[in-house]
Every structure is written in C-alpha cells, then in structure tokens.
Amino acid sequence: MIRFTDKGLYCPAGNFYIDPWQPVERAVITHAHSDHARAGSASYLCHHLTLPLLQLRLGNNHYQSVGWNEPVFINGVRLSLHPAGHIIGSSQVRLEHNGEVWVFSGDYKTEHDGLSGAFEPVRCHTFITESTFGLPIYTWKPQQVIYDDISNWIRNNQSHQKTSVLIAYSLGKAQRILEAVSAVTGNIYAHGAVYNVHETLQQAGIPLPDIRRVTPETPREQLKGSVVIAPPGAAESPWMKKFTPYAVGVCSGWMQVRGHARRSNVDAGFALSDHADWPGLLQAINATGAQKVFVTHGFQSALSRYLNEQGLEAAEVKTEYGNDEEITELKEENGIISEQAPETT
Amino acid sequence: MSSSTEISLTTNGFTGFASLVQVLGTSTGTNEKTDALSYYFTHAADEDKVWVIAIFSGRRPKRVVNSTLLQNWCAEITGLPVWLFEECYHTVGDLGETIALLLPEPDIQGQQKSLSWYIDALIRLSKAEEPEKKQFITDTWRHLNREERFVFNKLITGGFRIGVSQKVMVNALSKTVQMDAPVIAHRISGNWDPGTTKFSELLNNEGAAADHSKPYPFYLAYALDKEPAALGDPQEWQAEWKWDGIRGQIIKRNRQLFVWSRGEELMTDKFPEYQVLENLLPDGTVLDGEILPGRGDTPLPFSVLQTRIGRKNVSKKQLQEAPVVFYAYDLLEYDGVDIRDQPLETRRKLLEQIVNDLSASGRAIPVFISPVISFKTWEALAAIRERSRELGAEGLMLKRIQSAYQVGRKIGDWWKWKMDALTIDAVMVYAQKGHGRRSNLYTDYTFAVQDGDKLVTFTKAYSGLTDKEFAQVDAFVKRNSLEKFGPVRTVKPELVFEIAFEGIAASNRHKSGVALRFPRISRWRKDKTPGEINTLADLKQLLDVYGK
C-alpha cells in the first residue's frame, strides 16, 4: 500500500505522498513541523487545525482540510486522519484499500497534553511508527511532575529577581508549557517566532492564555521576573541580553540524559517531550494489532530489533524526518530568527 | 550576593546529597556552585559533610561490585536483553545513570537515610558475599527515586565528574567556616580517612597535627597569553625549562618518604627509584618538581613513563627500560618549616644546597636541579626557547624571582611559555559516541593519514571543536556511516582536521607506528580535501626529528 521512495512515503494506488520531502503533485501532511510539511507541492491535504499553520509557514497553496475520522477517497483509497497527540492538528494517516489497512503514525505521543487531542490507537495490518525516543532510557515522568518542576524553577528565579527564559520549539512545546507557566505568573513574553504561531492558533480558536511579544520597545523593567518563551536558536543570540539577569531552561525530551543537558550549557533541563517514550511506543504499537511494523526516524534499529524479538515482523526505514530533532529544530528556528533579526536586535 | 539559598534545595540525608549533586551538575556558573556547596556545608549533618569533601576530592570508598554485576542485576530487574542495555549505555555514556533511568519506579517508601549511612553500608559490604551485595543494592534501588539512584550508583562506580573543582570546594568551605582558602586546601589534602575524621577535626587548628604525609597545594601557572616583553624587566624573572612529566612533591618527614602527584595521588610505591632519598633527605623537607623518565640527567620522552604508570607493581624490566628521575625546581618546607612565603630566590638557594648535599653522599641520586636559564633580553630567551624540543622540554617557565609559592592557579607571578604544538592534517575515518557531557553525540574520532592509496590510522582525538562544530560533525557521521562495529561507526573519509600534539614517539600499538602526546583537534580544515592531507612519510619525518 505504501512504498518508501526517495521523495517520501508513496501510495501508488491513490497516487499521493505522505509528508514528502520533495515537491509532489499531491501531499498528505501529518502535522506542521518543518521536517514533515515541506514547501513546493501542488496540493496539500491536512487536518483543519493544521491548515492555518501550513498557511503561516508555507504561504498560499492549494489546501484541503478534513476533521479526524472523516474519510476521504482518493482514487479508491479510503483515507482518514486520527489524532496523534503530538502537537495541535497532528494526525496519524489511516489508509484502506482492498481490505488492507495501513497506518502511518507521523510523530506522536501517548500522554494527553490537553491541547493536541488524545492519541487514538487505530487497528491496522501494517503500522509505520516513528522512534525518536525508541530506547528504554526514555521513560518520561508524568507531565504534571515536570510542570511542577518548571513552576518551581520559575518561582526560584523570581525569588532571585531573575527572568526565566524557557527554550521550547515554537510550535507545540511553546504552547504546551504555558500550563506550567500560567500556574505561576501571567507575565509571559515570547520571541517573535513563538508569538507568530501563538497568534495564528488563537485566531484559529485554540484557547491559549495571552502572551506578549518581545520588541525593542519592551521596557526592561517589565521583563523583570517575567517568563520569556524562545525557540532553540535564540538561546545563544545577543537577543538574550535584554533579559539580564536571567536563567535559561530547556524543555526537550533530550534533557532526560544528563550529559545532553550539560552539553546544552543551560541552567535547567526539563525532559518534556512531544514524542512517545519507550513504554508509549510499545503500547501504541501493541494497540494497533499490526503484525508488520516499519520503524522510521529515531532509534529505528534498536526498536525494530526489539519488536522482532517480541515476535513482530519489523523493519527499519530510512526517511528524512527529524534525523536529529535538535538539529532540525536549530535549522528551522535559525531560519525564522534571521527573518526576525531586524526586529529583535 | 548574600541570599544564595536555592529554595528547592534540601540538605537532609541522602535526598539532600542527591539534590546537591543535581544543582552542581546543572548550574553553569562557579558562583552558583560555590553557593550551593556553601549552603550544604552550613546546613547538612557533619558526617555527611566530611564525605562530601572526601568524594569531591577523589576519596570515594573502595568499589564493592563491578560494572558487569550491576548491569546484570539491572537487566534482571527490567527484563531487557543485554544488547538493548548496551545500546542504552552507549547513548547515556554513564553506567550509573543508565541504570537509574532504566529501573522501574520505586515501590517501597523507606526511612530516609543519610549519605554516611549508605557509605558505611557500602564499606561493610566490601567483605560480604555476592548474594548479600546483590540484596542490599537491589533493595536500595527499589526505594530510591531516579536522582537518588543515580547518586547511589555513582558512589559505587566512582567519578562524579560534575564540574566541581578542588578550588570551588575550598572556596565554599572557606566561606562557610571563615578560614583562609589556602589553609583549607592544605587541610583537606593528603591522607585522611573520611570514615574516622570528624568535620571539626578536619577544619580545626588542633586536629591538623598528625598527618606527616600531607603535601602542600600546588602552585600552578597560567599559559602566557601575551608577548613576554609585557612582563617587564627580564632581570626580575627566572626562566627554566618546562618539563613534560608528572608534577610532584617529594616529602620527607618523620623519617618517612612520600611522593605525591599533582592529582593528589600518593604515588610513593610507584617510584622505587626515590626510596634511596628516605635515608638521605633531611627530615622536614618538601621538594616540588617534575617526575620524569630519564637516564642520568637526560630526560626521555614522556611516553616511556606511560608504559609503567598504570601498573600496580613495577617490574624489573620496566625499571630498566623506563627509569625515573626527579627534576626539582622548588623547596616548600625546609627544616620542618613552611617557607612558601619566602621569595623564590631564597627558596632556590636552599633547594640547591639540599640537592648538592644529596650528591655529596656519593650515591647515585635520582634528583637533579632543574637548571635556571640565564638570559639578558626577552629576544635572546625567545631564541633559547626554540631549542626546547631538542632538550625534551615543552617550552619555558617564567617565574618572578621575588614570588612567593602560592596556592592553586594564580595569575601574575608564574607563567608557562610553551612551544607551539606540532600539527598534521588528517582525515576522520571512525567516530564513536562521547561520554558524560557529550553522550549521544559522535565526538570521539579516529584520524588517518595517507600512505600511497591507503589510509592509515594514527591517533584518536576527543577535544578541540566547539559544541556547534561537534553537532555538525555528528550530523555528518549519522548520514555518512559506512559500517557499524558496536559503538564505532566507519565514516566516509571526507572531513579533514588539523591535529595538534605535544610530542611524538615510536609505538607498535598503532598501525602507523607512532604515538602522539596530547593529540587534539586544532581546527576543522574545511578548505582542504582528503586528497590534500599529510602522509605517513610526513609523520615518520616528525618522529625522526622529535621522537628521540
């Protein structure tokens, strides 16, 4: 049903691609992160909530959007989207043709974050899963525990008259951590890249607390003790000077490992991820009932070997999705930051 | 800067120690680390404080179980296959942390115990049979949380590596107990048993008497970062060769001889050559100098010493092939009196007198005076420095003639003026994930030079790139792996780097036949293609010139 080609995941029967990394005629998009939603295709199909984000990031194109569990037929292939729980609008893609069912997970997480829609297990014969955190060392703490850590960290910074700069991916993590931040303060600022996404989502009707954009005019006085949300690339830029004295905390699944947290040279690391952890991956794979599993981007060799040993037919697949989430984040955010440069310096 | 207390920081019991380690491991500034330690030293229980001092100065309890057992027990509890455990270990880069991350959530709420309680238990365990060890360790795992388990595992496996230097700890103690830092540095050096020493004894004037082995904190020089002319009048300065050995103190007190390395390791037994000094040196003498491989007064390359340094017992053959001498350049204690406050000039005269007396004994003495180089102008000295490598030195030391012997790395009176490193351009052929701070990132590389149409590996290098460059090379490795051997990846020979090193010697451990001293990446030669790298013949030529 799906072939792995050098342009991306291709469905020959329906003649369309899912999350292609090269321009194609017809692209189905799981979610709006840049390694999955790329520019240049002639038409795009995505979830309603992904649509405004694609418009923001890819500009005007031929778009079609659908809701979850609303099947569309493309050349006889029955296609439907199902919540993936990764970020707002993120979807799994279910394909059915001649009685055979395949599901591509896109990126997903199994813990419900209250924003992205709860991950829905979808029964299928063949499941294509991501494996960003496909090692058992990646077993997340419950999100409330991490939110509490973040809240306490902010309070501690406030008691030292420091601004808390939280580094979070501008789409997804930045909105998610607002819950932890709002528990402490309403004095929230954002980098332009974060603010743009925030504004787009608010306009699309997502209930998010109000935040303010950091501009050259923002008075330093107001920033004291505030929380500033910024994308990964911003942490090392002169843009940060304005917040002195400040402390930097990074919210990323990679912070699970101390060495990784120390290498990023920040004051605090919070292992908060929008990807499934090891138990989440196994639970999701199990729930599909699939006999055949293809494992994409991440620790694909470890996860597929483990699944094989568990009696499933599993194989690794090379894709161009998030080879290393951090690097993709960096690339993308650097792009955005350079656009913003005149305004932020 | 007075209100430095972390509100989330508890100092109580083992949890308190775990959160101290957590804060020290994540804080980026020296001030924060000092504050956290000082807060701990103010509030924690005395028995725990003594152990914290001990642990952060490298005195951990003897290891009671090996890594394989820990790994097996963890695999047994989690039911993970061994290969997957190893995959995790390669990604985390630290066994104690890997286990802490893999174990299931704690299921017993135990009574809070103290740091010293756990250490005492571990010490007692050293005599126990394996089942008893397993019982205690796996039980402990079951009632500690993730952060506490990590710390507990590190107590067993050793090496906290959380960026706390001796200096930071000494400053924190000094702040807490209101004593001068150099005094504290001296107190906590040397041989003391954290199991029997009380905090008050360690840091009290009365308690300090007993230990005769205690070395002085070393005075360390900064690298000269300007033209020597900026140091002013050459007449105020003394120049010596900078030797490439192990910095050490030889101590003779109470008719006993002690040899300490700069890493605060007691190494007396490793250098039987020095035993003759036990009878010849006067009591109350402390020499500072360089432990060097050498025959007579001719130094040999450092690599000669490396062949015997790791051994517990030195063999007769090694004593013959890698003899050790001591190049003395300072005297810290004379006739039982601490003379570090005296000017270098005075100390040097007394040192010369002591070494001359040794020679007058008529025996073969392994101690030589590191000669003073006389010079009139900085230009003349620069010319002399060019001869460093011929003499087996790394460059020059510049010391102010009137300088006192200070504590730790201090700017101003002592400088090292090293030769520029040797360099060679090479291509990266293997990559391996780093450890600790660089886990999950390919940062350990093996390099090769050309030999006809073949590539010959000749060195590994771990440092010298910025974090950003490491991220770029890491991305390259992930996309250009040719083969995988366990944790090692063979990569497309495409990236060219300039490798800098301090010395070169013949070796049969490497295919190339050479071994480098202190190899590191000096820069990424993005301007060069693999066709333009150096050849094996170039390396051999360096060996001929510098490798004697």
Automatic annotation (TrEMBL), chain A:
GO terms for molecular function: RNA endonuclease activity. SUPFAM superfamilies: Metallo-hydrolase/oxidoreductase. Gene3D superfamilies: Ribonuclease Z/Hydroxyacylglutathione hydrolase-like (3.60.15.10). Signal peptide: none annotated. InterPro entries: MBL (IPR050698), RibonucZ/Hydroxyglut_hydro (IPR036866), Xnuc_lig_assoc (IPR026360). It comes from the Bacteria. This is Putative mRNA 3-end processing factor.
TrEMBL record, chain B:
Coiled coil: none annotated. The keyword Magnesium applies. Transmembrane segments: none annotated. The keyword Magnesium applies. It comes from Sediminibacterium ginsengisoli. It catalyses: ATP + (deoxyribonucleotide)n-3'-hydroxyl + 5'-phospho-(deoxyribonucleotide)m = (deoxyribonucleotide)n+m + AMP + diphosphate. GO terms for biological process: cell division; DNA recombination; DNA repair; DNA replication. Gene3D superfamilies: DNA ligase, ATP-dependent, N-terminal domain, DNA ligase/mRNA capping enzyme, Nucleic acid-binding proteins. Keywords: ATP-binding, Cell cycle, Cell division, DNA damage, DNA recombination, DNA repair, DNA replication, Ligase, Magnesium, Metal-binding, Nucleotide-binding. This is DNA ligase (ATP). GO terms for molecular function: ATP binding; DNA binding; DNA ligase (ATP) activity; metal ion binding. Residues 317-451 form the ATP-dependent DNA ligase family profile domain. InterPro entries: ATP-dep_DNA_ligase (IPR050191), ATP_dep_DNA_lig_pp_1105_fam (IPR026333), DNA_ligase_ATP-dep_C (IPR012309), DNA_ligase_ATP-dep_cent (IPR012310), DNA_ligase_ATP-dep_CS (IPR016059), DNA_ligase_ATP-dep_N (IPR012308), DNA_ligase_N_sf (IPR036599), NA-bd_OB-fold (IPR012340). Pfam families: DNA_ligase_A_C, DNA_ligase_A_M, DNA_ligase_A_N. Its EC number is 6.5.1.1.
